[in-house]
Amino acid sequence: MPRYVGAIDQGTTGTRFMLFDHDGVVVGNAYRKHEQLYPSPGWVEHDPAEIWEKTKAVIERALSRAGVQPEELAAIGVTNQRETTLLWEQDSGRPIQNAIVWQDRRTTERIEQLRENGWEEKIRKKTGLEPDAYFSATKAEWLLENADPIEVEPPRHEDVRERAEKGEILFGTIDTWLIWNLTEEHVTDVTNASRTMLYDIRAGEWDEELLAEFSLPREILPEVRPSSDEETYGTTDPDGFLGAEVPVAGALGDQQAALFGQTCFTPGEAKNTYGTGSFFLMNTGEEAVDSEHGLLTTVAFQRSGEPIQYALEGSIFITGAAIEWLEDVDLIESPAQSEELARSVESTDGVYLVPAFTGLGAPHWDQRARGTIVGMTRGTRKEHLVRATIESIAYQTRDVAEAMAADADVEPEQLRVDGGAVKNNFLCGIQADIVDMEIVRPEVDETTALGAAYAAGLAVGYWEDLEELRENWRIDRTFEPGGDRREIERRYDRWQEAVDRAKGWAVDPDE
């Protein structure tokens, strides 16, 4: 009798496998980091083969630690870093090159060309997205145009595009890559499809006009399925590494998975996930709300036989990664120390740090913005820089919250938060103050994995309905807004000035 649901949470810096029981309680957990590759300035890559090996390792490790047999799994769900793109050979399963990560900026000029050629409004209308190197379309186009020829039998070099047009090369985001390795089925779910800049989110299908613009053969594309799929995507091979036949029945991009795990099933319910970046999503129900303030319209989730549910999203590229940067440059010894140092000073002493290390996402969308520190004096100490970094996370969230309030008829009454950084009580407290909203932290902060588990478990009947999931959601702590509103507003105005100084920096002086 299956007793648990498993969730693969494949993120930007590592892979986690978690086991949940019927109450949504974690009973098993394992995590492994993978290497970050930076072959050129602005380029970020991952080795897909390494990711798959680490995925197998954490599944085996979590099961072993929990004393759970694979046969006890009712289903497996998958959640993943979105937009990260790869191509692989169908026959061998071998990636043709490293995956291009969502943070990668190598196709910035191609995006600028699209804007110059009048594609901006068309892309926004079809996909809900802003044209940006963040998304998968230009990454896939770049791979087809620049990947090295493949050695085939009889011995000769064969062009990647030629093989793609024959259906011998497969395209996918990381969810597709993992599902293919688990089940040998080439599928994705609607949430991940909606992040490719190739998918018409209202029609619910790959868009022929966009495929033509990016010269992407339809043969390489995965089948798009519901996020919680009663037919399942397939099963694991009983003769494979698990030694059991387990349904793979749910998939969600990581931010939609967190929305699902936070049980934001009703329009107006919102969450913010603090990971490498931060991603603020608000459920808008069956209405795909067009944004006029720099947000994305995206697919929230879909259950089998039901309409697509949509969300507004503010994608902030760098938040938790800014704390990692503090550690990289030896301003802190560990992420936990950031809270202690930030509390040790009453303010940033006028210092603002804009962590635009890979450009600015919502609501600014400036690919050429770069990380900037302003307001330093001879008296500036590392404590001020650390506090300014933490405050930048809260300020960026407010930027998105204000855009969301302007776009939507319904405003969230509270913001549910999750991700590694929400363990920082100082961040949660100033977040409530700066955004002027109740911040609610759940007991289970790994809601990304929980959302994937919920999607898979619902598909196979492990959980009956959404209300049953709501009953599992429990609050750890609530942070109420406070502070001097006039002073908060003054500092927020100065933050916006700092952002203006970060914009447009990465310009070739010879151009």
Task: Fill in the keyword field for this structure.
seven-stranded mixed sheet; 511 residues; alpha+beta; six-stranded mixed sheet
Give a description of the structure.
By secondary structure, this protein is of the alpha+beta class. 34% of the residues lie in helices and 23% in strands. It contains 16 helices and 25 strands. The strands form eight sheets. A seven-stranded mixed β-sheet has the order 19-20-18-17-23-24-25. α13 links the parallel β23 and β24. α10 runs antiparallel to α12 (382-407), α11 (335-343) crosses α12 and α12 crosses α13 (425-435). The mean pLDDT is 91.
Summarize the structure.
This protein has 511 residues and is an alpha+beta fold. 34% of the residues lie in helices and 23% in strands. The strands form eight sheets. A seven-stranded mixed β-sheet has the order 19-20-18-17-23-24-25.
